[in-house]
Design goal:
single chain, alpha/beta, 2-enoyl-CoA Hydratase, Chain A, domain 1, three-stranded parallel beta sheet, globular
């Protein structure tokens, strides 16, 4: 079963297998890929002969580097149906992964960012390798950490999730394990043997989750030390509170290396979306998953309006590549509270439809 050549869906005995197949684009996910994966999960959820699902990316560089944001930006500027349909479908898929009641094994062998995080981190068996590189870099293109970032970032230890969501900082496999965004580490070279073991397992010997966990453990190896845990206390102090100007001032006044790096990462990000993202993460910590996704849909519909910072960020970083976005407004102090509030209001066409009949 295939959906064109961008996502390949197959059955391997008791395993449903999903291959994101845009290696030249680092497997960036398109609307067609989202709907293909969603349809497969819906089918396999009701098929008792499917005991587990594996998702991976084609090539040797990336699991999935994010969404096809250039296409989404064009759709937003034109206000074509894609700028609604893509996020309706993507956020429903994030929720379907979160609720999937069979083992959902995400093999994160390479770059895993943005939309790729949404395709993986909500699953129940998240495997990283020595090549895994995680980030939520959305504020750099005038967006916010979506695809459920309200949920998984706000539930990271202390203020680590705030730091990751605002700065777009990158993590390796040991860091992901340490903060609960991954479950197991194994060498990239173990992939074929691990998949074969799953396909040939005795699925009558216990629950599907127990069987997957036992097989995974057979291939698991230590990931090394997690650098993020060594700076948690500093991040907790630096990124505390609900006022972004106070956080920025704290970073600027601190003489330490952690603050200097964080300040440099914040520099150049959209002031509006930094403030939106901080509010999103604070609210997200108090909401359940469905409320998280409803909130994110409201934010993204506002963020895709013509003239919004997202389009300028895509132009500067991905189209013209001058890396000099002209944010509007350009300073944190000029961002109005009323404008931030508008990102959390229901869009004119209505909210996210969680259950599509």
């Amino acid at each position: 079963m295939t959906d064109g050549d961008t996502v390949i869906l197959t059955r391997r005995g008791p395993i449903g297998h999903i291959l994101l197949n845009r290696p030249k684009a680092l497997n960036a996910i398109t609307f067609e890929m989202v709907t293909g994966v969603a349809d497969a999960l819906a089918e396999w959820a009701g098929d008792d002969s499917v005991r587990a699902v594996i998702i991976e990316g084609a090539g040797d560089r990336a699991f999935c580097a994010g969404g096809d944001v250039i296409a989404v930006s064009h759709a937003g500027q034109e206000q074509s149906p894609l700028c609604r349909d893509f996020f309706q479908a993507e956020y429903r898929l994030n929720r379907a992964i979160h609720l999937f009641d069979k083992p959902y094994i995400a093999f994160l062998d390479g770059i895993t960012m943005g939309g790729g995080v949404g395709l993986s981190v909500h699953g129940n068996h998240r495997i990283v390798t020595e090549k895994t590189l995680f980030a939520m870099p959305e504020t750099g293109i005038g967006l916010f950490p979506d695809v459920g970032g309200s949920h998984f970032l706000s539930r990271c230890p202390g203020e680590i999730g705030t730091y990751l969501g605002l700065t777009g900082a990158r993590l390796g496999p040991a860091d992901m394990l340490a903060i609960g965004l991954a479950d197991s580490h194994m060498p990239s070279a173990s992939r074929d043997a691990y998949f074969a073991a799953l396909e040939n397992a005795d699925w009558g010997g216990g629950s599907a989750d127990e069987i997957v966990s036992a097989i995974t453990q057979d291939f698991a190896t230590p990931a090394g030390d997690a650098a993020i845990t060594g700076i948690r206390d500093e991040l907790d102090r630096l990124f505390a509170g609900d006022d972004l100007e106070e956080i920025a001032a704290r970073l600027a006044a601190d003489p330490g290396d952690v603050a200097a790096k964080a300040a440099s990462l914040l520099d150049g990000k959209s002031p509006t979306m930094l403030k939106v993202s901080l509010k999103q993460l604070r609210l997200g910590a108090m909401q359940d998953f469905d409320a998280n996704m409803l909130m994110e849909y409201r934010i993204v519909r506002r963020a895709l309006q013509p003239g919004a910072d997202f389009h300028e960020g895509v132009r500067a970083l991905l189209i013209d590549k001058d890396k000099a976005p002209k944010w509007n407004p350009a300073r944190l102090s000029d961002v109005e509270d009323a404008d931030i509030h508008s990102y959390f209001e229901a869009p004119p066409e209505g909210d996210l439809v969680l259950d599509q009949k």
